[in-house]
Amino acid sequence: MIIYNVTVKIDHSVQVDWLTWMIEKHIPDVMQTNLFQKNRICRLLEQNESDGIGYAIQYECKNMTDFFTYQKEFAPALQAEHKERYKDKFVAFRTLMRVIE
Description:
The chain has helices at about 15-30, 65-75, 75-85, and strands at about 1-10, 40-45, 55-60, 90-100. The chain is of the alpha+beta class.
């Protein structure tokens, strides 16, 4: 099992809109690729929130082949949509993890 983790710090001024958009639009769009089996969105705790609110969005896929298919065929458009909508209001980084147990 592979976990694709996207950590985002979103500006206070758009945080409510961003969270609603993620739950109602972006995450469902990612899941409609049929390359991920599960997802979750978590709020980061014990973080300095003076410059924004931190979230981790996690998607689970079966293998690296599915992840690379997502990266090649779907991620560029989905990430561009996010970037355009929240331009200059977020920072994000992505990590991959393999589940051991």
